[in-house]
C-alpha cells in the first residue's frame, strides 16, 4: 500500500544554489521551534552536508533527536533524506527537495513521500508543511523568517 506523496512547490526570486544553501545550511533559521521535541530547550536544528549525514535537533542538556539521514546530496539541485520526524524510527518516510532555474530565480519542489503500510497512519500529521515551508521561502528570498 503506497500513498501519494505530500507535494508543495514554490517559485523563489533567488537562484537554485542560494535556495539549496538556505534549505540545508540555514535550517535552524527557518524551522519553527514549535515543530521540535521541546521548543523551550531547542538549541539547534542541523543537516550534515553529505550523503549519510544526519538531520537532527539538539537541546540544552545535550539531548539530540535524529530526524533522518541524507541519501542524496546534490548542491544547488537536489536533496533527499529519510524522515522519522513525528514517526516511528523503524519506518521512515522520505523527503526530496528539488531546485531548478525558473525565470531568473528558481522553482523548488518539496515532496514528502515513502508512505507505506508501516507508516501510512502517520501521514495525516503533516498538514503544517505550508507554514514551515513559507518560512524557508521567505528566508531564501531574503526576508526574515517570522
TrEMBL record:
SUPFAM superfamilies the UniProt entry points to: Bet v1-like (SSF55961)
Domain Activator of Hsp90 ATPase homologue 1/2-like C-terminal: 16-140
Highest taxon, organism lineage: Bacteria
InterPro entries attached to this UniProt entry: ASHA1/2-like_C (IPR013538), START-like_dom_sf (IPR023393)
Family classification: Belongs to the AHA1 family.
Name the record gives this protein: Activator of Hsp90 ATPase homologue 1/2-like C-terminal domain-containing protein
Amino acid at each position: 500500500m503506497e500513498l501519494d506523496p505530500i507535494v508543495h512547490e514554490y517559485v523563489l526570486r533567488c537562484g537554485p544554489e542560494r535556495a539549496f544553501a538556505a534549505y540545508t545550511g540555514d535550517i535552524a533559521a527557518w524551522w519553527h521551534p514549535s515543530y521540535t521535541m521541546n521548543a523551550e530547550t531547542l538549541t539547534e536544528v542541523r543537516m550534515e552536508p553529505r550523503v549519510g549525514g544526519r538531520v537532527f535537533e539538539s537541546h540544552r542538556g545535550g539531548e539530540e533527536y535524529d530526524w533522518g539521514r541524507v541519501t542524496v546530496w546534490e548542491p544547488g539541485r537536489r536533496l533527499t533524506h529519510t524522515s522519522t520526524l513525528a514517526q516511528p524510527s523503524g519506518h521512515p518516510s522520505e523527503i526530496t527537495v528539488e531546485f531548478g532555474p525558473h525565470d531568473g530565480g528558481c522553482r523548488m519542489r518539496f515532496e514528502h513521500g515513502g508512505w507505506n503500510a508501516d507508516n501510512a497512519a502517520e501521514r495525516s500529521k503533516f498538514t503544517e508543511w505550508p507554514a514551515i515551508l513559507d518560512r524557508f521561502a521567505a528566508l531564501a528570498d531574503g526576508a526574515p523568517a517570522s
